[in-house]
Amino acid sequence: MTLPPPLIEARTVPYSLRRRLTVGMVAGFLAILVVLSIGLWTYARNAANQTYDLLLAGSAIAILERISPTPDGLIVDIPSSALEIVGLAKEDRVFYRIFRLGGSTLTGDPDLPLPPGGVRAGDQPRFFDAPFSREGSRFVLQGKLIIEPTGPDWIMLQLGHTRLARDAMQMDLFSKGLAGLVAIAVLGLVFMRLGINRAMAPLAGIEADIRGREPSDMTPLDAKPPREVEGLIGAINDFMGRLVTSKEHAQSFIADVAHQMRTSLAALQGQLQLAAEQDEPERMRQRLERASEQATRTIRLTNQLLSHAMVTHRGIDEPVEKIDLMPLIRASVEEFLRHPETEGIDIAVLHDDLPAGSALLVADPVALREALRNLLDNAARHGPKDIRIDIGLSRTRIDEREALCISLDDSGPGIPAAEREKVLERFYSLNRAGGGSGIGLSIVNAVARSHGGRLALCDSRLGGLRVELDLPVDGPA
Amino acid sequence: MTLAPHAFARAAAATALALVMTLALALALVLTLALAGTGKARAQTVLTIYSATDTSAVTELIARFEANHPSVRINYVEYNTSELYEAIASESHAVDVVISSAMDLQAKLVNSGDAYAFQPPNVGVLPEWAQWRGELYGFTWEPVVMVYNKKAFADRPLPHTRSELAGMIRDDPDFFRGRVGTYDIHLSGVGYLFATQDAQRGYQFSRVAESFGRARARTFCCTRDVLDRVASGELVYGYNMIGSYTLGVARKDERIGYYLLDDYTLVMSRTAFIPENAPNKRAAVSFVNFLLSPQGQAAIATSPEMIPLLPEATVASGHSGVPGTEGRSLLPIRLGTGLLTYLDRLKKEAFLADWSAAMQVDSASQ
After folding, report:
1. pLDDT at A37
2. Are B219 and B173 contacting, i.e. CB atoms less than 8 angstroms apart?
3. Per-domain residue ranges for chain A?
4. Which one of A84, A87, A107 has the shortest CB-CB distance to B344?
5. Residue of chain A minimizing CA distance to B348
6. Is the ipTM of this complex over 0.90?
7. Are A94 and B344 within 8 A, CB to CB?
């Protein structure tokens, strides 16, 4: 036996707000660390160079002081302190040479590298790095103008050492600085994580509240949400409110239906019982006819209740298709006229201001057909046998939205203005005796609402009732 | 038929000869193989040491090292300090360890970047002045001493400072004329080192040099030459002699006396380093580690001509070290870049010229 794959979990892997925030913050901290590290590295190098350049500069001064012209020639007497000063960078090797600006090396290592850009005369120290020796080296180059019998001449001193002490100091400064930065970053991330957890805590509380409820518990959440999720909580509470209303509607509907069905069936049973008690065939027949009428009313009531339930249910699925109203109206009228009891009824469909094929709108054809059938049925049931019905189709607007208006005018008795509100409610009928179930107009009203439209009742120019059903062209908002 | 016994005898002889030769060949083959095998196992590595120390001074040391390291055989080549420097600086020799008492020349070789860095296991107990860059290690402790002919100074006071020495020579030129000996700093690296170290201590040295000049002091390449002449009475006083060597000779020779001056006493250390291009670095490291180890220091203590760097080894050896060092101002010569100053070409020329001028040395004085 193989278990079905867990489709739902595979399809909806939820993202974690906490992880997103953490990843974002870590990335941010890393970027900051990298930038600061580069800065720190440069700073450490400069600091190390400045520190040890002082050694070179000091030694250079001491050596240059001891270069002096004499009548017998140039004296270069390197003081022993000079190389010891450079040697304060204990592990570093020392290199030097003293040469004339012209080129000839007087003493020292003639192979030392010259600075980029060559040697220039000048008594200001000039520091430069050179890839001399495997450790890398840094040099100072400084000159001294000597007045010799042959004339003035620049004597240059080049003094340098390997970079071990500098690199060690640079690394020391850098690593200590970096350790501080990393510590701050880690602390920051820890606090941020704590902060996220704290910020998320109300959500967990709300979740626990919802999960822990009885299925019937629809009271609003009593969480005190932060501003950022207040809207969400409000929406949840609104939604639960609507659920409660909807449930209440459904309950009252069921209660109504039960009552109606029970009443109708009880009446039917009463008629049949009366018929059964009659001895005379003629009276029995009359009673049975009454019972048959009651049965017809019950069937009609049942049909309409089912129709109402269907329309209400279909209203949940939003229509997506554009349909043409004209053929739909014609088909409904033709179907209506096919019933034998509609003989003598005069129906006219007027659509002068709408060319054929232009009455298009987004709507549910099944629901619309049901609404039309109920409107025609209503007019026929409550009017005289030769009632006249005019069906009109015209353009209108609902709150700036383009809409189509289906109107039904009849020559029947009409509905007094005071009752027009009430007849839209369920089970409110002006003519129960005439077989009115009180559901027809409420079905139409439900269709109008589910399409984002509206239903209006008014006086007809034919003397009876005018029903106007306005439906927006592009479907419910 | 008459030939038969002859033929038989000849055949038998030929057979016997063939047998003997076969055996001999087999034996020779076995011996050759055996010898080749043992020879290979006994000396896989030949450690070449260039040294400016008498072979006799290190015989015991080398024997003990080879006993500890049977796979290493030491090829000990003796030089004087200047020749040794030239040989190593030319980089044309495959050398594993360089040992010299000329600390300045050793420092210069290391400063040129030719040395290999390593850490002896007991680096923590080695004095800081006797090591540099983890490459150059001093392994002996050798004060610079004065020697004198005991008989000549029997009824005279010894000078106790350099000033007194200069004053004594000035006051009694006849006694000292041609009878004071010291290093020829042109020839001896260690002599030049001592002289330049003296020169950095103050003006007394120039007074001493002047008095040497007036007394027509004689200069020699080596400690031994001075000691021989002091023993024979040809010289009465020897200035700046290596203490350990002097000590070894003076122990055996009653005629030679030695002592430390009161103003200061230089302390020199023989140093060793491993060239970067040494063919057998591992063996070289273990040799230098041995020099610095307690066992190596103990072996140095047995040498008549060296004093170990670590004082424990001196005490353990039962020798008293150099008597009279207590309470003296001992100035160890510090390894480092400071030693490079007097190796500067112009500085050295000037120093030697000043020295020569003071000494008024002529070639006949040898």
Report:
1. 93
2. no
3. 16-210, 213-314, 318-477
4. A107
5. A77
6. no
7. no
